[in-house]
Amino acid sequence: MKKEELILCIKKSGDGRDIELDRLTLADALLFQELLASFTELLQNYDDASKFRLNVFKSSAAVKLEAEESFLKLVENDIDSAMNRKPIRTGALKKWQTLQQVISKSNYSFEFDIVSNGISRRSLISEFKSKPFPSPKKKRTRRIENLTFLFGKLESLDSKAQLHIMPYDKDYSVRINCISEAEARRARDFAYSDVYICAYRSHTPSGDSHEFVDVYPDKDEFKKIQSFYTSYQKLDGQERYSAFIDLNYEIMEKDTDLEIRLFEILKYIRLFDNSTAEEGQLFTILSSLKDYKSHPIIKQTYESLLLRFKSRTKRKTV
């Protein structure tokens, strides 16, 4: 099959001196070494190494890739695709960028040609110096957000309003950030004793972070609220909204003082005061409790939920 060549040559130094392989200065040698390493690493991103042969010219500081025409066409297509911001294999793109940076940052002059039958059919050097390759798109880091329910010993509450809890089902301590002093005070009564806590967990490959949601006085209340949230997570769309409407009706129709009922419903609406809450769920909560929005028991949480709702919709009222 027809053979072609890809030749990269250092022609002259910044002061116009001819570059020859047997008369390299230290600066020349370092540049040639960097070019050769970049060129070699680049070729490793192509599958079939048997399709090419790499040579170094004795009479000049040049490296030559000799390969079948089809293989060099693949390399050429990658160059064109990268320069026109079309996708190529990510590993190859990074190596082409490295080679381009070595060439473009130097004040030496180069030749970079695709040669067929001893004649250059395309010079790449002007393109390499004038049109930088785009950076590979960074993969989005998936963030997993949910609520977690923890039972353990509250070991400490430090000066930064961070709780340190040792869950009984884990072999490591969990640090929970309190957004306000009021949150920290709610947990302080349980210091150095067993505690039931709900926290907002955010997970990325770099690690977990936890924000305080609520603390519960006993196992029964903890289990009841955990059970509601677990069931809620299994529902879809309108079923979720109906679940809260039913819960709110059940609590608010009880024959107890209003303060007791509002304090009970507060335990549930705190579960939705975070970025995972859906717009429809926020609207359902806000509209259901609108008549009590100014009551001191739920006022602060209601206003926080309202701010979240307004930030996600053009509606300014409920």
Task: Please tally the helical runs, counting DSSP H or I stretches of 4 or more residues.
Answer: 10
- Straight-line distance between termini: 74 Å
Query: How much beta, percentage-wise?
Result: 25-35%
Please identify the top-level CATH class of the largest domain. Alpha Beta
For the largest sheet, list the strands in their spatial order.
Answer: 2-3-1-4-5
H/E order of the elements?
EHEEHHEEHEEEHEEHHHHH
**Range of helix content:** 40-55%
Please summarize the sheet with the most strands: 5 strands, antiparallel
Q: Uncertain segments of ≥5 residues (pLDDT<50)?
A: none
What is the general shape?
Answer: elongated
Overall CATH architecture of the largest domain: 2-Layer Sandwich
Mean pLDDT metric: 84
CATH topology of the largest domain: Alpha-Beta Plaits
Question: Which secondary-structure class do the elements indicate?
Answer: alpha+beta
What is the CA-based Rg, rounded? 33 Å
